[in-house]
Amino acid sequence: MQQTLLAVVALLVFGTVALTMHQNNATAEHRAVAGDVDMAASDIASAYLIRALGRAYDEADTDSAAGLRITTVGLTTELGPEAGETLADFDDIDDFHGLATTDAISFEGTALPFDVSVAVRYVDPADPTRTSAVPTLAKEVIVTAVERDAAGNRPPARCSLRRVVTAAGQFFQAAP
Fold it and tell me: How far is 132 from 34, CA to CA, in rounded Å?
């Protein structure tokens, strides 16, 4: 009888240890996957930010000869794409304003979808934390990527990247 009782206690102890180890392994794997998905969100947001920063500062600059803008004269007052422009046609930074799209990145052999949104606004060059109601020589670009279908019991991965761009930092260039 005592041996049977000891065997049952040993099985209970072994079972508890095995379950605890399994739970710890699952938690570690869950955290690793969450970190990888967070990196994927960052990669998507970075790609859109880089794409926006590769464009001319303003629509008025897209057909200009090479040079630097030093005045606000002629700057676009309405941010966003011009009529008929699609993402493939965007030729200046503010064309990205209002962009809302879905993009995916390959993750462990499957497509991991993200909702991507972009906001562009004029900011005060002396204090980029302040929005300007009139065109200035500084624009803030904010790109946000949010995981569309988060798996398991974790919240969706989210990344927001912000960059302030000055007209002096953007060369007048023809659209690529």
Answer: 37
